[in-house]
Structures are given as C-alpha cells and as structure tokens.
Amino acid sequence: MPIAPITGMLRKRFWLDISTGLGLGVSAGAAWWYGYELPRKAQQEAFYLKLEKAKLEAAQQS
Fold first, then answer.
1. Per-residue pLDDT of the chain (62 residues; tens, 9 = 90+)
2. Which helix (H) or strand (E) segment is 8 a member of?
3. Where are the domains of the chain?
C-alpha cells in the first residue's frame, strides 16, 4: 500500500502562511519600536538636554 504524495500543500496554505508571517513580523516590529526604541530615544534626548543645560550654565557663570 503506497503512501499518496503530498501535493498542493504550498498552494493551499500559501496565503495563510504569508499573512501569518507578515502579521507576526509587523507585530514584533511594532513591539520593538514602541517598547524599546522610542523609550530609549527619549532617555537619550533627556540626557543630551541635561548636558546642554549644564554647558549653558557653566558658560554663563564664567
């Protein structure tokens, strides 16, 4: 009793696989962007703002 070949698997699940992959990729990208990148950029901007204020205060006192 031979086993029937698996045919049409890619065609049948192609759109499901593509949409799942894109959906997970976009979700992971958004989670990284809003969960890590933007808070890190805000922290970096706050640091440089504090540094610039310290430079201006030092320049005014001299």
1. 677 766 666 677 888 889 999 999 999 999 999 999 999 999 999 999 999 999 999 999 87
2. none
3. 32-56
d(CA 25, CA 15): 15
Tokens of 14: 């192609």
Per the document, the length of the chain is: 62
SS (H, E, C) 1-62: CCCCCCCCHHHHHHHHHHHHHHHHHHHHHHHHHHHHHHHHHHHHHHHHHHHHHHHHHHHHHC
pTM: predicted TM-score of the whole model, two decimal places: 0.66
